[in-house]
Amino acid sequence: MPRLSFSGFDRADEAKARALFEGLHLSDWMLSDEAGADAVLIDLDSMYGQMAWMKGFDAGKVTIGLTQALRADTAYRIDAPLSAEALHAVLAAIAGGPQANAPAVETPMPEPAAAAVTSLAPVSPPVATTSPEATAVTAPVPANRLAARLARATGPFAVQFGDLPRLVIDPASQQFAPGKSLKALIDYGHAEIAAESVEALDPETAATALRQAGDPQPLSRLTWLLALGGGAGRLLDHAPGTRFQLGKWPQAEREFPKHFRIATVMLKAPATLTEIASASGASEAEVADYINAALAVGHANAA
Length: 303
Fold this sequence. Notes:
9 helices, globular, single chain, 14 strands, alpha/beta, five-stranded antiparallel sheet, about 30% helix
């Protein structure tokens, strides 16, 4: 009989999750501690859940992410807040039994779903700065960078630059592919892309390419990445003396482990780039890049 455990939940939320599980009266699942579990349900929207996910789980355990984010890198994903129907559906899928028709559950090969994306903010007038490491960039994003092309795109297209992976981008469905390794794409943030490297696609070709990729990603992740790599360690739109704060706990990307510490600091109170760097142990350049990305997708605000 497969066993389920919970990770990253506070006491009250874990008690609710246990009550939901027990209310299902499943004959083919039981609860256990994490060491003996076959599957782990992780609260990815909590700091402790993110810490557990970043630390990793034993090989062979099936991971289920509970989150309000549009995707999770766990094997399965459930929309937060947890519902009995979604929990039943994902456990049935893991056990190989009949699956409930619950759109809140994502299997490892999800159907395309729309995801909101925020374009890069317009650039403000020049601002005097004093930081030698991270200064405000006041020139507009070059028109031949992917972020600028993405902002003005009216239809699907593919792009191939140098040795970077080929991307298929569809603004209509708000998806792109491939995107399993964001870090492999980060140079797209500052690449100057010639017109011949961009290929317009018809909607059917783009849809087929997204399906063949197997795991198309929300376009918001690409927007985030392009801003992360676009400033080269400098704030794109604000002076270093500006204070920044995260509005909610974002999904942490495992390929960027320092972002977890940066996000933890930015959640506490508005702080300057230098203050965030000092408290997180990250460099000012790393913090500047993270702030650029968080602002681009609406996760952070400037005070």
